[in-house]
Design goal:
It is elongated, with a radius of gyration of 20 Å. The strands form two sheets. The chain has a four-stranded mixed sheet, with no helix packed on it. A hairpin with a 5-residue loop joins strand 1 and strand 2 (about 35-40). Helices cover about 20% and strands about 25% of the residues. It has a domain at about 20-105: SH3 type barrels. It is α+β, with helices and mostly antiparallel strands. It has helices spanning about 20-25, 75-80, 115-125, 130-135; strands at about 30, 35-40, 45, 65-70, 85-90, 95-100, 100-105.
Length: about 140
Amino acid sequence: MRTSDGDFARAPAPTGHLLDARLHLLDRQIVDAQGGPLGIVDDLDLTGVIVGEAIARESPPPRISGVLTGQVLATRIFGGRTPRAKLQPLPWRLVEKIGTVVQLKDTDQVIEGLWLEHWLRDHLIGRIPWGQRATE
């Protein structure tokens, strides 16, 4: 929208912390409070967005309510969409810090995003000669 002098109107300043989901979140490794790997950010839960409906210009920006991690390897290789039931939601309130990794706060919530990796480590990689060192 242009103002009377021909310049574009200044956009309102965003409140909170502005993130580019592709740049800052998606495919980032998720680590627990001690730095142990838990999985990667596969998708996001957003509030303020209804699937299949256009976002009105005057509506507030969507907010991240959680990150989703889970079993997406097969769909990344073969294509398709991972069923929601295969993704584990982690509430956004658990996110402590966003950097090269997404670090979570210390929590009692059980996070099972790496069960496949643990199974492969224990049943396949660990049986390969010298494979024990690869899991350290």
